[in-house]
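Quick illustration, no need to memorize.
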Amino acid sequence: ADPRPCNAMASYPTLPPSMRGLKRFMTVATQLEGRFPVVAYFCRFHAVQVAVKEHASGPDRNVIISMLDAAEAEKKKLTQFEELHDDEKGKTAVWTLAMSYFAKADKLDRASQFPQAAKLFQIVVVLFDVLHLFSEEFDEPTQNCCKYAKFKTVYINKCLQEGTQPVPGPVDAEGNPIEDPDTAGAAPPPAAAAAAPLLLSSSGDGGSAVETEELLDLASDWSPLVDTTRPECLTRGEPGSLRTVVSTTDE
């Protein structure tokens, strides 16, 4: 029997507007679940964890409980995967996929296939956020890759919005090409992304849409997209531990 979940997203509730910041994780999970079911689960569980931390005491409590139910059901379908029971293997699975997509996105960018590159860079950013399930801090090369992916997502879509041709490969804060740099170490300063208030909401040549609100989130701050300081009781990958937090939180 195929151990992979079948449309696991169908069991998760629709996110209310107050949780729109979590949509990116759920979207990427849906894109990945066919080939990478464990990484898809980690994406959704990360969204659940953030929802518990940020919304457990608000009006969305019932939505969170439904999310926990769905996460527990999804995990039961994946118990045979070692990545769910070993932190290092789980971290490696997410990190390896993030770097694989980073390499592919960089290749597409250098080949001037910009909408497709922006889509993959956006997935890379999501996966790096999901890595915070396993580690609070990244080493410098990983941080640089994440910053570069954020910058490229915003930069490419800003160019397409303005009708200008993006520069392939690494560029400086003004959009000028950098000659033969190490890609991961060539991330421009935050000002380059923060200066992009108007961003493309969809692409016109078959590339998947990148929502303006999500890009504005990327442009506004180079810190992780969500707060990564988690309470001691929030065990990585365990919906049950999160349920305890929700059940003891006043409505």
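Residues 1-6, 180-237, 241-251 have pLDDT under 50 and may be disordered.
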